[in-house]
């Protein structure tokens, strides 16, 4: 029986984080005391369907402030920021009166571009990352190669069409857009799971941890980690 009271979920306050704060020199990443240049990007994209702005710092502290108009996506991306130790501000406005597809996909596009831009020529990064993350009964594996070549292997079968009002199929579209635009080989494999919220959240957390590893600076590598000599 539906509860028809006027209950309103409390609005969870995202940590206050301004796009302008992103891009300051990264003092913590310095080994010898000299601040290293921030690996960050601010990317905007406007179409007749959506308007998306992303500010990203790869060497952040896990602070996320995400407002896309799709609350479930906000929840996933704030989790992504936290577990990837990225600082991430996302503001999106989309044609949600049609459905959430354009907004979810376009946020993936702009986030991917922000990673591409923040990584620059990809020199000095670890390039590969992998993570296996559980959430109760759900277990998801993510392996990435941030090589400049995009590829998506998406094996995350979800029986339920929706979690709340969010269409579970949109996760596939989001991951495709992200991997295409970041220039990233992205393999997602669901080991098992029943609850779609758990499955998707485990996927985003595993994505975060794998991308944190892959984007991390590799102190032993002075140039681009490829025998080909380029990652672009
Ligand atoms: Mn959750």
Structural notes for this entry:
The protein is α+β, with helices and mostly antiparallel strands. The protein has a single domain (19-215), classed as Imidazole glycerol phosphate dehydratase, domain 1 (Ribosomal Protein S5, domain 2). Helix content is 28%, strand content 26%. It contains 4 helices and 10 strands; from the N terminus they run βββαβαβββββαβα. The strands form 3 sheets. A 4-stranded mixed sheet has the order 1-2-4-3, with helices on one face. The chain has a 4-stranded mixed sheet with strand order 5-6-10-7, covered by helices on one side. Strands 8-9 form a two-stranded antiparallel sheet. Helix 1 (71-84) runs parallel beside helix 4 and helix 2 (101-119) runs parallel beside helix 3. The radius of gyration is 18 Å and the shape is globular. The chain starts with 39 loop residues before the first strand and ends in a 17-residue tail after the last helix. Residues 75, 197, 201 line the site of manganese (II) ion.
How is the topology of this model organized?
Blueprint lengths: L39 E7 L3 E8 L6 E4 L3 H14 L2 E8 L6 H19 L8 E8 L2 E8 L5 E5 L6 E2 L2 E2 L2 H13 L2 E8 L3 H20 L17
Parallel strand pairs: 3-4, 7-10
Antiparallel strand pairs: 1-2, 2-4, 5-6, 6-10, 8-9
This protein binds manganese (II) ion.
The site of manganese (II) ion has 3 residues, from α4.
Share of β-strand residues: 25-35%
The Rg value, from CA coordinates, equals: 18 Å
Q: Which kinds of small molecule does this entry bind, naming each only once?
A: manganese (II) ion
CATH class: Alpha Beta
């Amino acid at each position: 029986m539906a509860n028809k009271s006027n209950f309103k979920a409390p609005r969870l306050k995202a940590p206050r984080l301004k796009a302008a704060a992103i891009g300051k020199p990264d003092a913590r990443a310095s080994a010898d005391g000299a601040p290293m240049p921030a690996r960050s990007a601010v990317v905007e994209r406007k179409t007749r369907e959506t308007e998306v702005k992303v500010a990203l710092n790869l060497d952040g502290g896990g602070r996320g402030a995400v407002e896309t108009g799709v609350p479930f996506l906000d929840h996933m991306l704030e989790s992504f920021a936290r577990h990837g130790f990225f600082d991430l501000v996302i503001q999106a406005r989309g044609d949600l009166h049609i459905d959430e597809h354009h907004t979810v996909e376009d946020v993936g596009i702009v986030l991917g571009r922000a990673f591409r831009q923040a990584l620059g020529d990809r020199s000095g990064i670890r390039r590969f990352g992998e993570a296996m993350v559980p959430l109760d009964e759900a277990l998801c594996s993510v392996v990435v190669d941030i090589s400049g070549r995009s590829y998506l292997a998406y094996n995350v079968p979800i029986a339920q069409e929706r979690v709340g009002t969010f269409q579970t199929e949109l996760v596939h579209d989001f991951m495709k857009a992200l991997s295409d635009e970041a220039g990233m080989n992205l393999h997602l494999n669901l080991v098992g799971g029943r609850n779609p919220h758990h499955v998707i959240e485990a996927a985003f957390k595993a994505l975060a941890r794998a991308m944190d590893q892959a984007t991390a600076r590799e102190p032993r590598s002075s140039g681009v980690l490829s025998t080909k000599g380029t990652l672009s």
